[in-house]
Amino acid sequence: MKANMGTVDRILRAIVGVVLISLVFVGPQNPWGWIGVVPLLTALVSWCPAYFAFGISTCRKDPTA
Known about the structure:
Layout: H1 7-25, H2 37-45, H3 49-54
């Protein structure tokens, strides 16, 4: 799996994931907050299956390549 997510994308996904997971414990305490695991995991591994399927990459292009 080649990384297809840039730094900003990873940071935003991690924040969204943590916020959604925190909703399970505080606030409405809705089990739907566990959906936050998906953006958190994709941020941790720098790879998004949806980006792969659509041929999208937010990684910075290597200027030396």
